[in-house]
Structures are given as C-alpha cells and as structure tokens.
Amino acid sequence: MANIGIIGAGSWGTAIGILLSNNGHKVWMWSAIGTEIDMLNEKREHVDKLPGIQLPETMVFTKDLEECMKGMDLLVLAVPSVFTRQTAKQMRPFVADGQIIVNVAKGIEEQTLMTLSDIIEEEIPQANVTVLSGPSHAEEVGKCMPTTVVVGAKDMVTAKYVQKIFNSTVFRAYISSDILGIELGGALKNVVALAAGMADGLGYGDNTKAALITRGIAEITRLGEAMGGDDDTFAGLSGIGDLIVTCASVHSRNRKAGMLMGQGKTMQEAMDEVKMVVEGVYSAKAAIALAKKYNVEMPIVEQVNEILFNNKTVKDAVEDLMLRDVKEEHEDALWD
Predict the structure, then answer these.
(1) CA-to-CA distance for 102 and 149, rounded, in angstroms?
(2) Distance (Å, rounded) from C-alpha 9 to C-alpha 77?
(3) How far apart are CA 212 and CA 186, in angstroms?
(4) Phi, psi of 50 (to 5 degrees)
(5) Cβ(167)–Cβ(25) under 8 Å?
(6) Which residue in 1, 58, 189, 229 has the fewest CB atoms around it within 10 Å?
(7) Can you give the pTM of this predicted structure?
(8) pLDDT for 160-205, tens place per residue?
(9) Tens of pLDDT along 270-303?
(10) DSSP sequence for 117-168
(11) 173 CB-near residues (< 8 Å, 6+ apart)
(12) Which class for 73: exposed (0-12), middle (13-18), buried (19 or more C-beta within 10 A)?
C-alpha cells in the first residue's frame, strides 16, 4: 500500500482517487477551491463532475496543501493545464528531493511553448516528474470501466513503480521512455477534437470524422517527430488511441465545445456551456506556434486557430481544407 496525494479535485483527479483507493492505496486529495473540498467531504460524491459515483470512505479531502503532500510515496498533479505552473509553484516547498510526481493533465503552455512536465521541472527542480496519458475519460474510469494508458518516465525503475501503483483489473498501464511524445499526443489531440466537434455541429457524418482523425494524427506525428518524439508513440495509446476517443466520445469536452461552435455559438459561449476547462482552446495557439517554429504543415490546427481567434466560419474552414493543393498521402510514395 502506498500513501498518495492528489493535487486537483476535478473530474480526472477524483476518478484517479477512486481508482487508486480501490487498488488499496491511501489517498489524500486537495483542491484550491474550498467549497469543492466541503462538498466532497459532505456528499462523498463529486456532484458537479462525477454525479452518482460514491467515493471510497478511505479517501481524505483537505484544504491544506502541505497535508496532501508531506511524506507521500507518490504525488499526482491533476489540475487543468492552464493552472499547472501556479500550482507547481505552490507545491515546491513541500516536495522532497526525488519525489515522484505523476502529471495527468494535457496541454502546452501558450506563452513559452513548454510541455507540462518541463514546466513542473522548472518550478520543482528536485522532483522526479513522470506523465500518464491515454484514452481515459474520467466518467468511465470513475465507474471502473476497463481502460488502458501509458506512463512516461526518464528511467525504467520509476516507470515500473508508477505502473504497479496504477495497474488493476480495470486499469492497465504500459510504460514508455518517450515523455515528449506522450505529452504532445495528449495536448494536440484536443485541438483536432475541436475540429471533429465542429464537423458534428454542422451535421457532417462518419466520413468527415474519419478524415479528421486520420489526417489529424498525421499532423500530430509530423510535429512530434520534428520535435524529437518517437513515431511509435503517436501510433499508440497517447496518440491515435487518445485522438479517437476524444474526437468521438460523448464525454469529450473538446468535442462538445467544437460541436457548439459548429452550431453557431462563439468560442466563449461554447466554453461557458461546457462548464469545464476546454484544453484544446488553450493548446491551439501553442500548436500553431510550434508548427511554425519547426516548419511543419498542420492545416487542421491552422484552420481551428482561424475559427477560434480570427472569426472564420466553420464552413469556410472546411472548404479551405478540402480545396488545398492535391498531394500524395505519404511523402515517400514510390511509383513503378
């Protein structure tokens, strides 16, 4: 049994808390929102984000960040990506040398173009930072539905330790050394999922969805390889696996926000209606900036940015995507 502190009590942090408690570990959970901790203590249920799922009695909910961190065998950082840096700064005084921190959020910092693990390492240099990603909606993990993810770490000992902590009959963790690729796949798929939702909002069908998923992973892989990621990663759980589920699932907040925009709502109206952080909106500018920096063509990401920030209509964006210069599907195509 391990003592585990979870920083962030949203839907994903709470679902992970349920999983780890069911695995036999002792779990503490902290939130920056005091009323959220009060609700969790009183109701033993995350009424807003995981309604109907009772939380294990062994879970401890606290407003004291130090209590949630000191002496823990493992820390899980589960705040939305836009709050990663400021939360890491708050955490730093309570992190011991070599403390394992598992980041489970997905995103890229717009201002610096840094991945979340890079941000955590910058703010908490004494930590041993790992990542966990893959097709894993909180709503299903909280209900103990079978799920697979990948854990990224700098050394195999750490990777196998985190794998052992999370593994169960309903949650299977693979391990990888490609932290960068895992994080890029997790962040960039949210931008493509916005496009998939927009297509749904326009009433388009399965052909369109398949095109966006297939060409979306091509864009993600091109950028990932240019930045030093492993192409096998993008064919795996944190690449095509996470992209499929985020583009297609009723649980996907990015798909839902995109669908609302496809139906005519503004970006802000869509985000307000979703009532949760829509990570793709925050990663879109970073994604196109990285594409320019590494001279990589990402037409879907480019059009999503035009819709989000330059008032382009979704229909016009689709038309521009379809009427791009024709080309080979694979750049290394060979002809007899």
Answers:
(1) 13
(2) 10
(3) 16
(4) -135, 60
(5) no
(6) 1
(7) 0.94
(8) 999 999 999 999 999 999 999 999 999 999 999 999 999 999 999 9
(9) 888 887 778 888 899 999 999 999 999 999 999 9
(10) HHHHHHH-TTSEEEEEESS--HHHHTTT--EEEEEE-SSHHHHHHHHHHH--
(11) 132, 148, 149, 150, 151, 162, 163, 166, 167
(12) middle
Q: Which residue has the tokens 């209590």?
A: 67
Paired tokens of 45: 């249920």
Q: What single letter denotes the amino acid at residue 240? A: I
Tokens of 18: 């349920």
Q: What does DSSP say about strands 128-133 and 147-152: parallel, antiparallel, or unpaired?
A: antiparallel
- Which positions are catalytic? 189
Nearest to 61 by CA among 105, 24, 18, 116: 18
- Which tens digit of pLDDT belongs to each residue from 313-324? 999 998 888 887
In sequence order, what are the residues at sequence separation of 6 or more whose Cβ sits closer than 8 angstroms to the Cβ of residue 79?
A: 7, 8, 10, 13, 32, 87, 105
